[in-house]
Amino acid sequence: MGRTLLGIVLCLVLAPLVVLAWLRFGHPPVAVGDRPFPHERQIVDLALDARIDREMVKTPPIAADESAFVSGAQIYRQQCVSCHGLHGKPSAFGSEMYPMAPPLWEVHHQGKSIGVSDDPPGETYWKVANGIRLTGMPSYKQILSDTQTWQVTLLLANADKPLPPEAVAILRGEQEAASPAPKGKNGH
User: Nearest-5° angle of CA 140, CA 51, CA 44?
Assistant: First the structure.
């Protein structure tokens, strides 16, 4: 019994020390080109999905209409293009990020959806507002108002549907995007 207890105590002490030494001497995969930890994606996605499910707003507070899509396209053009690309023009470096910044205007999942149009709008809103640690996806909570965040969210949620010509022109780079209004004191 004593040896078993001693073995358990040593494992509880030695295991964290071995992990700390491994981390301290620079062996974990931290470069973009490194192979990921075993099951890294599943572990991270599990926690991210649980947090989003717990906090996401189920019903958008604004209408998914032409005005929202055009405003969303302007915001997207100002804030999102460098990582996620334009309609028909992928980002120069989004595919070199880890994890890769998804091209939001390209078809994926066996040709069934474009960008994140298969995600609930509340999930996309959460990701835009809060960002995602260690991915390069910043939080826009202090940059965009709640309405602006919903406008770009609704645009992305409807990327697989026909959009107003003005929004498409902005997203193709054919028309310059107007600068979005700065975030007000009350966040709107």
Answer: 90
